[in-house]
Amino acid sequence: MLKKHKTHNFAYKDSMGVLHQLSFKPHSYPNLMEYIRDQGFEDWGDCRGRSWCGTCHIKTSENANLPIENEDEQHCLLVLPNHQNGSRLACQILMDENIRELEFEYLGDN
Ligand code: FES
Questions:
Q1: What distance in angstroms lies between residue 73's CA and the mean position of ligand 1's atoms?
Q2: Which residue in 51, 56, 54, 59 sits closest to 85, CA to CA?
Q3: Is residue 23 in a domain?
Q4: Distance CA 101, CA 61 (A)
Q5: In 3D, which of 44, 30, 39 has the Cα closest to residue 12?
Q6: How far apart are CA 24 and CA 7, in angstroms?
Q7: Whose CA is nearest to atom 3 of ligand 1?
């Protein structure tokens, strides 16, 4: 018997200001950047998830508990001119239960 994977939801406001309600199965994608890119909402990910380019810069919900876990992301965020509290790189956010019911918003790299 196949084990069923529970589906979770989150919201994403894209670079055009359109809010999308999205659902996913945990770990169905390597990270949030690739998931959003494959939905066709953003043409981003120039460095392919290495925390170098900043194109996948997003704002997270105030209630998000998504601590930054690597120095490369921290460094990349600090040099982005529109960095703010709650900024993250979507390529460093895993598609797991921690993003359930959160809202993300495109910020970009300028
Ligand atoms: S894809 Fe380049 S920083 Fe995320």
A1: 9
A2: 59
A3: yes
A4: 9
A5: 39
A6: 5
A7: 51
CA distance 82 to 88: 11
CA 50 to ligand 1 center in whole angstroms: 6
pLDDT tens profile 42-55: 999 999 999 999 99
Question: Does the predicted model carry a pTM greater than 0.90?
Answer: yes
On the question of pLDDT at 1 being above 80, the answer is no
3 in any annotated domain: no
The CATH number for 22's domain is 3.10.20.30
> For residue 13, is it within any domain?
yes
User: Ligand 1: distance of its center to the CA of 36 in Å?
Assistant: 12
Give strand ranges (E) for 37-107: 57-60, 87-89, 103-106
87 touches ligand 1 (CB under 6 Å): no
